[in-house]
Amino acid sequence: MTFYKKLSPFYNLIVFYCIISFLLRIVLLFHPITQSSFTILECLKIFGLGFISDLFTFIVASVFLWLYLIFISNSKYNTPSGYIILAVFVALFLYIASGKSIFDEYGGALPRIILIFVGIKTVLFALLLFLPKLRDKIRYWLFVFVIFLYVLLILQNGISEYFFWNEFGVKYNFIAVNYLIYTNEVIGNIMQSYPVIPIFSALFLVTAIFTYFIVKRSGNYIDAIPSVTDKLKITGVYVVLFMISLAAIPTLAKTENSRNVFVNELQSTGLYKFYLAFENNKLDYFKFYKTLPAEKAFNILKRQLPGISGENTKRTITSDSLENHKNVVLITIESLSAEYMKMYGNKENITPFLDSLAQKSLQFTNLYAAGNRTVRGLEAVTLCLPPTAGESVLKREDNKNKFSTGSIFKQRGYNVKFMYGGDAFFDNMQDFYSENGYDIVDKSSFSAEEVTFENVWGVCDEDMYNKAIKVMNAEAKENKPFFNHIMTVSNHRPFTYPNNKIDIPGDIKSRDGGVKYTDYSLKKFFAMASKQPWFKNTVFVIVADHCASSAGKTQLPLDKYRIPAFVYDPNAKPKKYNQLMSQIDLMPTLFGLLHFSYKSKFFGQDVLKPDYKQRAFIATYQDLGLIKDNVLTILSPKQQVKQFKLKPEPKDGIAPDYQIDYNEKCMKTERTDLVNETISFYQTASDMLKKKKYQK
After folding, report:
1. Residue 573 and residue 200: Cα distance in Å, rounded?
2. Residue 555: strand, helix, or coil
3. Is CB count within 10 Å lower at the N or C end of the chain?
4. How far apart, in whole angstroms, are the C-alpha atoms of residue 463 and residue 478?
5. Preceding amide of 494 cis, omega within 30
6. What is the pLDDT of residues 30-47, one digit of tens each?
């Protein structure tokens, strides 16, 4: 057997992986969410450099295949070495099973996983040792299993990348890393969103077919096991390619520099994107982003937040009227993009109640979500600070005892609660809110009789609102005002909800249905609330947590951050506020409406005050944007700064206040003042958190 053929397991799997990646790029290129056209040069980058990146990525990923193959031999089963090795395996198994191994220090499922793995290895080694006549057959089927597993993972990864693109319009990113942590919700979401049994049945069938052909072309490796010399040669070749790959992969990633975000995403390799997201879940602003001297950064901030002094944001907010301690109900609605509402141009009539309620409220028609995840929306309305780089504060270790909207209400004797129809453990909401003075009402608080419908995310919105009414009725009897923050769940994939509620069946899993049922549930909530004695003394704040999708042609597409928000007071006249504002401004504005006087650390401002200067923050976990003066300034890692001139693209039949589409044209001449202002906001916010100055 020639040396080339001894490498057959590697190159056959590499060819298979590259073919799957190539086909995936074609599918994603023509996917409806890929809202872009591509030049010939861009296509060459996508497929040419993408192929080379795939090649090197799989070489790194095949390290486990290499380890498996080089340890295949007959000599290790000879006497006495075979018995010694088996004794070591048994001892290791007993050590891990004792519950006092080093793995137990990590807790969780890790000790069990290691125990199962070592147990399987021990049993297989014993079979190969004591059944020499069956050794070849056992080894053959183990080889088939390893190839099957690699083929399965390659196909599974391709399917996962497709579904992730279908949801977010990008390859793996920070969200994919987060989802690995919450496997129950994510697996449940997949189970309820897609026809899992047909998909996986087809997947295993296709895997078996490809495994058969790859094993047929690679089986010569175990038919004539390479000698020690050949294994050393294989190892030498692999180590060289492995080292080259480690250098080549990040170098190729640097060529993902097109202004068209879709080109960069399609060119990239999903596995490497996942690795980057895992590594960059914590981003030190001062290490990765452009900075200013601290004193200058806070001096620039002072022009935006009059009243602060030194390197902090503490200032005094005063009102010329008596404080009004009305009850407050804040409802953050899952994934409610502005484009779903009639006033922003939607013609499907899927938010009839919200459309009508908006006309009776103080509307904020030009408001932008801080981020593209629920945790960012919750952070924005709870902490009222810009979305700093990396993970949301909710999910950081240092997330306790923060200066928050809840703490302002607590100072005034309010009962403060966070209500969520799912498990508040998800996205670390339980830890964050409970450690910041909120009482928690979540799925675990419901009795069996209070649940009429649930999916993997939790009980339906109707059940949550029914529970909320009961809680608020009890609170009203305490003769104390209440602040209750309700987070909805029904407008989320798989978009299942009770049937016979709206004219879109709940079991067809329609996003429009999810939006319409969310609207229907809100209508029922207000119908119930209006009959309660506390209703007329309550202010309702309604805002989306983020948009349904963040994918677009540009780095930070403005239309994917525009969200509806309004304040409904049964005793107040409706108004419109049309100026640019951020999600972080909503609660400070409410405090102004209630005439609260307080010491504030918020970056968010009362937009109804005459000294408010228009701006809005939008961000991903690593791209930090500021909208001001029709310019979008974006700070990115490696001290990169980009600016885009914003030009409205009006649509017929939509009033100017509700136009959400903008052309983002890259600016050739830098607006240094806006760059410095953007740096000032994000640098000072990062500084406040890092130095623990944002405590209450």
Report:
1. 56
2. coil
3. N
4. 24
5. yes
6. 998 898 889 999 999 999
